[in-house]
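Notebook p. 47: complex prediction with iron/sulfur cluster.
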Amino acid sequence: MSKFVTEREMEFQRECMKRVAARNNGQTAFVDTYGCQQNEADSERMSGMLTEMGYVLCNSDDADVVIINTCAVRENAENRVFGVIGRLVHAKRRNPSQIIILAGCMGGEASVREKIKKSYRHVDAVLDTTSFWRLPELILGLLEGDERAAEINTVGGVVEPDSRIAEGMPVSRLYPHKAWVSIMYGCNNFCSYCIVPYLRGRERSRNSEDILKEIREVVADGCKDITLLGQNVNSYGEMTGEGLDFADLLAKVAEVDGDFLIRFMTSHPKDTSKKLLDTMASNPKIARHLHLPVQSGSDRILKIMNRRYNAESYMELINYAKKVMPDIVLTSDIIVGFPGETEQDFEQTLKLVSEVEYDSLFTFIYSKREGTPAAEMEDPTTPEEKSDRFNRLIELQNAISLKKHKEYVGKTLRALVDGEGRQGDHNLSARTNGGRLIHLSGDKSLIGEFVPVHITQATTWSLVGEIDKGLMNGVRK
Ligand code: SF4
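Predicted complex, structure tokens below:
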């Protein structure tokens, strides 16, 4: 069963927020976010708590509180974060009472904590992902000069993930029309290249009622695009004792009144069920987009990655998804040059990509992550060979993406205008139901609205369209 932070503990955090707010005098806070959508969602919670504490959110290293919310998935991203933290020493010199906190996945690494303590003494505290709900207590402690405040979740120098769920934190969402809603935390899968399970703890799912309450709130606030988040959403519910799986949860979310689209990420192929695909197919509120990370087309490499599916079972899911949703948009993640990947293994990946015909791909050259089993594996492939494979994969996918995008030209689609554009003469950007990017022109007041868009051009990466004014009244709500 999932375990929860007690109401008494949450009450203590609320009391800390009030006490910080009472001494706050228009001070500022900056949450600098790196990494995935889960980090974006965590940052929105931390921003919510900072706002309750009276801080004015800003975008400056000179803020009175600076939180660097970090990602630990790639070592080179970690090095960049150390560069950012290093530069903050100047801000701290200008304002010695500034509070600097390193939060997120890197905060769960004992070695990072040691390095910060030793070499980045201007950083006041480190907070891992499982304890960011204790931010109010931490900030109050730092303001009151309590040195132990900086030691949250560290017992005898060892970082102990808090494997409980905290409900009832305030949230300050970045966009009014888009919301990330975490449905579960942590991961049990231990893919051999991935550090996440060591840093975010074991899987735990929120109760469906808490999720639905949050969905009703964001929809009432005008949100049109909701992404349900988890490291492996398909194993949602295994620990709630409610008897609901992820497909059941999706169906319940879709029953909430309102005009909105539901997306989800990330799906693990080993836990993706035909029931989930049927639920998507039968419900127009669930976006026709399946991001199903395959990582490799070679069964031998999938086994070494500890992914627990093979190319055949993966293709079976893809073919079923295409059968029940002919308009499904398919995307995936692929790692090129995993330790021991041969040319034959790589050709299996090319074959699978040709068969699936993804709309787009997130491709990465394997990068070693200390602390994972893959970091200890023999890796005889040269960087030149890896980059040659990577280029061949990109070339294949680019041709497929362009072909698929061209199929949109001449069609009129319902799309959500989601922000200001940055493409040539087009001042707005929108997303199709399947998540394809459209550049278009129109009044900024349309941001956050569904509009009918006539597609006029296609490139490998995006579409160009015009708002169909004739249909507008029929589509806009
Ligand atoms: S499913 Fe695998 S890749 Fe995804 S977070 Fe869990 S261990 Fe990492």
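Notes: The pocket of iron/sulfur cluster is lined by residues 187, 189-191, 194, 196-197, 231-232, 268 (CB under 6 Å). The longest helix spans residues 383-406.
Next step: compare against the earlier run before touching the bench.
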